[in-house]
Amino acid sequence: QTDSPANLMELLYNNEIDILYLMDRKLHEPSLIKYMEEKERIIFLASYNNPLADHHPHTLDELFRQPIILTEKDASYRKVLEEQLLEKNREIIPVIESDNTDILLKLTRNNMGISFLPEFFLKEESGADLCEILIPECNVYVYRQVVYHRDKWVTNEMKAFLDLLTPVQEN
Question: Beta partners for 22?
């Protein structure tokens, strides 16, 4: 099930979902067990045919002259980007918004605009005519996290799923 982090957290607390995978700010919830946590950089992606796809740093002004394709308004990393831009008295206005990253990637590959997605998409899409647009003014990171409620009974199926993941390393 996909949704905004806030809605997913509510589902988890209401016992409507067992395990939550989210990309958001680092969670600090004593009532949750954090099984996995990995830092993830969020980047601007474009087709190699985009004028900014020259492997040189660009400014926000240059970026904003391009069509921007973003996830839905309350998506975690878009929200972090918008907050970062707000601190600079800037606003990003997308030409297209979608909760479907496959659509965002397809539009980006077809040079319909610049998207803002986790860096792992660039790694997964290597050789697929995508490159990072370097915007030094924006450094957005979120955390990929897998959590479940501390009081949740962990079934054999949940345990088998969790065993596929890399657990958080204790210090």
Answer: 145
Q: What Cα–Cα distance (Å) separates residue 171 from each residue in 27, 34, 36, 168?
A: 17, 14, 14, 10
Let me know: does 4 contact 75? Beta carbons within 8 Å.
Answer: yes
* pLDDT for the residue numbered 125: 61
For the chain, what is the mean pLDDT?
91
Q: Give the residue among 85, 41, 87 at the shortest CA–CA distance from 63.
A: 85
Look up the pTM and report it: 0.84
- Residue 76 reports pLDDT greater than 80: yes
CB atoms within 10 A of CB 162: 16
Helices (H), the chain: 5-13, 60-64, 76-87, 101-109, 119-124, 156-163
